[in-house]
């Protein structure tokens, strides 16, 4: 397990808290592995009825840890990243997210696998894959257009613009926008507690019916995205984009 992921079980609810405040909860392989293992274990635990994924009152996650991210091959289906993505993709029990502050990259795409999403009205959601010379991941190139429609998905993925939690709620990326801080975390806990009190068989079947056929296509998309992602990560555009990011300058891309 990882010291940067806090795991709490209470009244039928499993809560996973990303806890790496000094790095804005940037995700490492160990963090992915810890969350994947906990989510998978929850599927076999009859006492757990719902899973909450959250950060702190000020930050959800800034996305992948850059050094960890560059040095870890994402095409490897045995990697912790893929264990986590498959765990949230195929989870039979409801997943609920509580999003305060920044949610970048996978911090947004993981929400597409959740059943309920609560955000701070001033949360900052962004998917800068194209900006970094990369492509969407976590099945988002399938899930996002399905959820928002082609035009809104293209706007978020092609431009990589940041949107607020309020805007995310307006376009259907989140259930409710709330005042930042404890209110967001509490809303997720309240929803999870309500689900934990419902008939578990009915909850499981209802989620299965809602997502019928979706998980399989999402996983296939995820695998294809992973192959492209790995190739792009080793390419000149990503190298220039990531170098420019670290050097705090505007990248310059050569014509293809």
Secondary structure blueprint with pairings:
Layout: E1 5-10, E2 13-18, H1 29-44, E3 50-54, H2 66-71, H3 80-90, E4 95-99, E5 102-104, H4 106-109, E6 116-120, E7 124-126, H5 140-148, H6 150-159, E8 163-164, H7 165-171, E9 176-178, H8 182-196, H9 200-210, H10 214-233, H11 236-247
Parallel strand pairs: 2-3, 3-4, 4-6, 5-7, 6-9
Antiparallel strand pairs: 1-2, 7-8
Keywords: Isomerase, Peroxisome
Protein name: Enoyl-CoA hydratase
InterPro entries: ClpP/crotonase-like_dom_sf, ECH/Chromodomain_protein, Enoyl-CoA_hydra/iso
Structure explained in plain terms:
This protein has 256 residues and is an alpha/beta fold. The protein has a domain at 5-181: 2-enoyl-CoA Hydratase, Chain A, domain 1 (Alpha-Beta Complex). Helix content is 47%, strand content 15%. It has 11 helices and 9 strands. It has helices spanning 29-44, 66-71, 80-90, 106-109, 140-148, 150-159, 165-171, 182-196, 200-210, 214-233, 236-247, and strands at residues 5-10, 13-18, 50-54, 95-99, 102-104, 116-120, 124-126, 163-164, 176-178. The strands form 2 sheets. The chain has a 6-stranded mixed beta sheet with strand order 1-2-3-4-6-9, with helices on both faces. A 3-stranded mixed beta sheet has the order 5-7-8. α1 (29-44) runs parallel beside α3 (80-90), α5 packs across α6 and α5 packs across α10. The radius of gyration is 17 Å and the shape is globular. The protein starts with a strand and ends in a 9-residue tail after the last helix. The model has no long low-confidence stretch (mean pLDDT 94). This is Enoyl-CoA hydratase. Keywords: Isomerase, Peroxisome.
């Amino acid at each position: 397990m990882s010291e940067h992921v806090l795991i709490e079980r209470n009244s039928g609810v499993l809560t996973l808290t990303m806890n790496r405040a000094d790095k804005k909860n940037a995700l490492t392989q160990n963090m992915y592995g810890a969350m994947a293992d906990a989510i998978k274990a929850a599927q076999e635990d009859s006492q757990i009825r719902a899973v909450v994924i959250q950060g702190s009152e000020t930050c959800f996650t800034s996305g992948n840890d850059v050094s960890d991210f560059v040095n870890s091959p994402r095409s490897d289906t045995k990697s912790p990243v893929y264990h986590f993505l498959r765990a949230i993709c195929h989870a039979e029990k409801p997943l609920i997210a509580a999003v305060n502050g920044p949610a970048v990259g996978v911090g947004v795409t993981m929400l597409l696998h959740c059943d309920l999403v609560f955000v701070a009205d001033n949360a900052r959601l962004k998917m800068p894959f194209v900006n970094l010379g990369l492509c969407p991941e976590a099945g988002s190139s399938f899930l996002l257009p399905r959820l928002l429609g082609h035009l809104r998905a293209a706007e978020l993925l092609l431009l990589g613009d940041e949107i607020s939690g309020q805007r995310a709620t307006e376009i259907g990326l989140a259930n409710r926008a709330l005042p930042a801080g404890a209110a967001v975390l509490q809303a997720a806990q309240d929803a999870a507690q309500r689900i934990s009190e419902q008939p578990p068989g009915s909850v499981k079947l209802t989620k299965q019916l809602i997502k019928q056929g979706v998980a399989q296509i999402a996983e296939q998309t995820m695998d294809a995205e992973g192959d492209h992602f790995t190739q792009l990560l080793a390419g000149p555009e990503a190298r220039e984009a990531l170098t420019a990011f670290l050097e705090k300058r505007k990248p310059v891309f050569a014509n293809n």
